[in-house]
Amino acid sequence: MSYQPPSPSDHRPPDPYWQPGRPPAQRDSAARLLLWIVAIVLLAVVFGAGLLLGQSGMLGAPGVGSGPTASPATASPTASAPPSLPPATTPATTPAPGTQEPGEPTAEPPPSQPPPTPLPVITPPPGPTPTQPPDAPADFGLFWEALEIIGREFVGRDELTDRQLTYGAIEGLVDALGDTGHSIFMTPEQLQRERESLSGTIVGVGALLGERAGRPIIVSVISGGPAQRAGLRSGDAFVTVDGVDVRQLEPAEIAARVRGEEGTTVEIVVERPSSGERLTFSIVREEIRVPATGWAMVPGTNIAVLRLIQFSDGAGDQLQAARDEALAAGAQAFILDLRSNPGGFVHEAVHVASLFLDGGNVYIRELADGQQIPVEVDTQVPSTDLPLVVLIDEGTASSAEIVSGAMESAGRGELVGMTTFGTGTVLLTYELSDGSAVRLAVERWLTPDGELIFEQGISPTEQVELSPTDRPVEPDELRDLAPSDVPALPDPQLLRAIELLGG
Predict the structure, then answer these.
(1) For 293-500, which CATH class?
(2) Which end of the chain is more exposed for a tag (fewer CB within 10 A), N or C?
């Protein structure tokens, strides 16, 4: 049955509870009931509005005539329980301005009272608002100020990238530590190159770079590698790489230019100190397995030269194998060449030192809190007590200094050459979320005698310099020499070591 509206002749207002045909008495009762229900509903609405206003006050909304809304930063993190309903017979009252308690119900303002003045609208700057960690330096807010000014005022701001700014800020942060040459920031690409180097596999030309007298030079060439086949020699000084003058660049920067994709060609121009001539080489890059060690007998003697290029993964095992081959070939004395060795893994330094020491300490760890922890020789490694001379120079660093210091402290042999670099710190690499990393000095190390090497280095027992025309001689170069050719070698440090061992 469809709905039918009341008859126009009926002067009652529309009543949803009235139905045509209901007796008048029942209709009057229904009307009275309806009035009571309406009254109760109105009372509930008024009371509910006051309750809601009271709850708003608990969350920081202003009461009638009160001050501005409290900052959310000052709100307690703990939520209050909802207020209980007062008895129905208790009328809601309006507290004095600014005196209501949290959760206390507040009545609506009288109609004659003007509405509260709306709060000003503050538009936040675009993007997320940076937050400062609670333990940040007191003046760290200056960074955000400077960043905002650069983004707004710098004439070349459109050419900047977030990565440039972020990496530059991290580099500045690490530089502020004052640990120059040790604690550094590395991009993902630099970190990958370092890992490749320490793993012993790279794509390049097979030459190790260093520095002498402020000039970038080739420290050594890998036996059988493309650099050796092309004719590059240790001691050659870099001039250009692919037409770019690199004489003022750091060795690491030059190495990044020399490396590249396998099968591609790089053009290198060098100056050869022995002749003063400038030479040009075009070399095809190859994947190269960089051996950590090499060895050869000095012609006409029973002295073996053990060359350790770096303390890469497995360097201790490689040097042990080389030493044992030399022993099998009749070696009666050793020259351990650590020149221009940049270091590497500290556990490999313990292994190498244990090849020549039968007990005692290799070095002492000094933690940030001043605690000192001795690191002992690994007695599981078979050692030899045959006469020993260690070659060192300004490029001998890190783990190479640990080994040099251990030999000196134990009185194991003479140190010949120049004072070492003076790293003297244990570095840990902390990788960041985008693949970059911060490498930090977390410990210092001391020699077993307790001598600090950081920024001081290890002094040789016999100082021997290389002139501009001299260069370190690699073991591979010794193999094809006649005994009469040895005194003419352009390596006075090696010659002095041979002399000390009676060769």
Answers:
(1) alpha beta
(2) N
- pTM attached to this predicted model: 0.64
CA dihedral 459, 255, 468, 244 (to 10 degrees): -150
Work out the mean pLDDT of the chain and round it to a whole number: 77
pLDDT surpassing 50 at residue 44: no
Pairwise CA distance, residues 474 & 219, whole Å: 10
**Which tokens in the block code for residue 195?**
């890992």
**132: CB partners within 8 A, 6+ apart:** 140, 141, 144
Name the strand (E) or helix (H) holding 268.
strand 265-271
For residues 127 and 67, give the distance between their C-alpha atoms in angstroms, rounded to a whole number. Answer: 30
Cα distance between residue 295 and residue 297, in whole Å: 7
**Domain ranges for the chain:** 40-59+93-110, 141-176, 201-289, 293-500
Token code pair at residue 174: 């690490």
Q: Is the pLDDT of residue 136 over 80?
A: no
Q: How many CA atoms lie within 13 A of 412 on its CB side?
A: 30
User: Tens of pLDDT along 305-324?
Assistant: 999 998 988 999 999 999 99
pLDDT tens by residue, 234-265 = 889 999 999 999 999 988 889 889 988 999 99
Query: Quick check: 483 pLDDT over 90?
Result: yes
* Kind of pairing between the strands at 388-392 and 414-417: parallel
Bridge partners, residue 444, by sequence = 366, 425
- pLDDT confidence bin for 130, thresholds 50/70/90: low
The DSSP element (H or E) to which 392 belongs, if any, is strand 388-392
The Cα–Cα gap between 17 and 28 comes to: 11
Contact 363, 373 (CB under 8 A): no
Fold annotation for 201-289? Pdz3 Domain (2.30.42)
DSSP letters of 430-447?
Answer: EE-TTS-EEEEEEEEEE-
Q: Which of 384, 400, 291, 382 is nearest to 337 (CA)?
A: 400
CA–CA dist 358, 380 (Å, integer): 10
For 377, residues 6+ apart whose C-beta sits below 8 A from its C-beta are 350, 353, 354, 357, 358, 359, 360, 361, 362, 383
Residue 353 backbone phi and psi in degrees, to 5: -60, -35
